[in-house]
Amino acid sequence: MRLYSALPSLLAAVFVLGMPAAHSQSWLDVAKEATQAIDKGLDSTDDRVKCVATDQACIDAATQSGKEVVLTNKKGKPLPPGQPAGSGGSAAGGATTSTAAGQSGGQPNLTAVKSDFVPGEKTIFYDDFTDMAGDEPPPHWKVRGGMTELRTGGGVRQLTLTNGEIVLSPNLKGLPQNFTLETDLTLANLSGNGGYVSWLFKDKAGYHLLEVRLFAQDSGDSSGVATDVYIGDPRENIETVGSAKPALDWRKPIQQAFSLQNGRVRLYMNGTRLIDVNQVSVDMSQVATVEFVQDMNNSPEAVVGLRRVRFAESTPDFSKVISSGRYVTHGILFDTDSDRIKPDSAAVIKMIANGLQSNPSLNLLIEGHTDSSGDAAHNLDLSKRRAEAVKAVLVAQFGIDAARLTTSGLGASKPIASNDSPQGRADNRRVELVKQ
Fold it and tell me: Helices (H) and strands (E) in the chain — how many of each?
């Protein structure tokens, strides 16, 4: 089921040339700027870095270098210990000092997370394999061409594809023109020339209109991964709209995120934007079938695992939606049974913070919601703590006035979907922001 005869030479070129520049600025310029940002903030008496609260470049560079940040005013005087970063109303926000981190409940420093991927809000398809039995095929997928099995351990459930060429088709009916796709996957036991996994979007005749491909191999100097996005009908013209060779370890779980929004295609891996192209013409109304294809014939012992798959329809940003009175987001994620916010949530929380900073009269009620799994009283408490966590981060890390934010935890009392399926439970796990 190899799509393009020119793929081997194309992939070889990708591995030789490496990843193309994602921005007009070279990596050397970026490195110089980061070094300069740190250098200008170094305190000669210790290993901390002083950054003006509005100097996000300094804050980000220091944080990524593992140094403690001391926030100062424009004259270089450290801010009072209890004062949150960016409290002067700067749209740039600020970083979490050790004090601020305590005030936001030990949350990760979301201001330093670079990913700008915002998942679509209306779930179209979701599966985390929580309702799959170990000796049965996945209930929400059609399987062709090979073997799948459920593997569990350490709190992880994984649909495992164990041999050769396998095609999985999620049970979804069509996709909107603007959508996002999130895939959590693993690769293991690669050897030699490896192989690839692809998301294929096909028309009624079976021709590919869009493909998102991840190639991996473990062969000396060529070990690693490459990723490509193709569009076009093979009967007419095929265009490679983006290629990249990310610097990541394929032996560790990979988070892949894809976005098609108003003709703009973006592809992320582990939060890093690798491909960003525009004026891409794909008529999603012509897509009749979506397939996840594993082709590891060059590496017979290879194993591919799927842990989470989510398709969702993109929606306008927070500032536009909140004018109607309520913004529902599934993009603020928490550790399991915890109020600790996942770093993946940074882009959504930054968007909310920017909306609040640009509209000083806007006040919000932050609601936490859970699914119905487990004890109701525990879920109610968890939802309250999660709502408080979102508020704490907005206040401590983004300088939002605490008086503008109130919180409420509703547990599983306000479901928006059935709790009988993984997708329904995922829909019910959400944060809602209500205009006050």
Answer: 8, 21
What is the distance between the alpha carbons of residues 276 and 22, in angstroms, rounded to a whole number?
7
Residue at which a domain ends, from 112, 137, 152: 112
DSSP 201-224: EE-TTS-EEEEEEEEEEESGGG-E
Assess contact for 417 and 428: CB atoms under 8 A: yes
**Four-CA torsion 12, 13, 18, 20, nearest 10 degrees:** -140
Asked if 300 and 236 sit in the same domain, the reply is: yes
Is residue 31 predicted with pLDDT exceeding 50? Answer: no
The pairing of beta strand 122-127 with beta strand 303-313: antiparallel
**One domain, residues 153 and 224:** yes
- Looking at the predicted structure, is the pLDDT value of residue 201 above 60? yes
Nearest to 405 by CA among 347, 324, 349: 349
pTM of the model: 0.72
Same domain, 163 and 280: yes
Check: CB of residue 201 under 8 Å from CB of residue 286.
no
Mean pLDDT score, 280-302: 88
Cβ-based neighbour number of residue 60 at 10 Å: 20
pLDDT band at 316 (very low <50, low <70, confident <90, very high): confident
CATH number at residue 305: 2.60.120.200
Quick check: 115 pLDDT over 90? no
CATH code at 382? Answer: 3.30.1330.60
Give the separation between CA 420 and CA 418, rounded to whole angstroms.
Answer: 5
Beta-strand relationship, 192-202 and 326-329: unpaired
Same domain? For 306 and 326 the reply is no
**Domain range enclosing 55:** 27-112
Mean confidence (pLDDT) of the chain: 80
CB atoms under 10 Å from CB of 414, counted, come to 13
Tokens of 315: 């929606």
CA 185/CA 270 separation, integer angstroms: 11
- For residue 105, tell me if it sits in a domain: yes
Whether residue 305 sits in one domain with residue 175: yes
Residues 101 and 181 occupy one common structural domain: no
Q: Which string of DSSP letters, residue by residue, matches 86-148?
A: TTT--TT-----HHHHHHTTT---GGG--------SEEEEEE-STT--TTS--TTEEEESS-E
- Number of domains the chain contains: 3
- List pLDDT tens digits, range 208-251: 899 999 998 887 666 788 898 999 766 667 889 999 999 888 88
Comparing C-alpha atoms, which of 35, 110, 98, 109 is closest to residue 71?
Answer: 98
SS3 259: strand
